[in-house]
Amino acid sequence: MLVVLFATVVVAQKKTEIKPSELPQCFKEWVTKNMPGYTIDKAYKLETKTEKGIVVSYLARATKEKSIQWVSSGPDCKDIKKVTIKEAEKALKPTAGQ
After folding, report:
1. Are strands 39-50 and 81-83 parallel, antiparallel or unpaired?
2. What dihedral angle (degrees, nearest 10) is formed by the CA atoms of 2, 6, 78, 59?
3. How is 29-67 classified by DSSP, letter by letter?
4. Cβ pair 83, 58 in contact under 8 A
5. Burial class (CB in 10 A: 0-12, 13-18, 19+), 46
6. Distance between CA atoms of 14 and 97, rounded to whole angstroms?
7. Closest by alpha carbon to 30, among 56, 54, 58, 68?
8. Comparing C-alpha atoms, which of 10, 3, 70 is closest to residue 43?
9. Cα separation of 95 and 74, whole Å?
10. Which of 9-13, 59-63, 87-91 has the lowest mean pLDDT?
11. How far is the C-alpha of 83 from the C-alpha of 72, rounded, in Å?
């Protein structure tokens, strides 16, 4: 019996705070359409080095009065979704070498 396992090993991750205006247009449009009244006030670009190359993703905090929501997506917004505060904190936690 032959068992083949596929795994992506994360080598390093670079986190950069960016201006909300620097997010992909599809990301900003999704927040406007799906989260009426929310304003993006923090944004991050995450670049993860893997065996397959660099994978870019985005993470943003949107606020509406006292409510806070986090949103995550790849550069093409095909996988855009709301994430929990714990997931956002984990993504922003410093990694070795940062």
Report:
1. unpaired
2. 160
3. HHHHHHSTT-EEEEEEEEEEEETTEEEEEEEEEEEETTE
4. no
5. middle
6. 9
7. 58
8. 70
9. 20
10. 9-13
11. 7
17 — pLDDT class (breaks 50, 70, 90): very high
Q: Which two tokens stand for residue 33?
A: 């359409």
The whole-model pTM stands at: 0.82
What does the block give as tokens for 31?
């927040």
CB 18 within 8 A of CB 59: no
How high is the pLDDT of residue 61?
97
Cα–Cα distance, 78 to 75 (Å, whole number): 8
CA dist., res. 1 & res. 92, Å (int): 41
Which tokens sit at 45? 């670009």
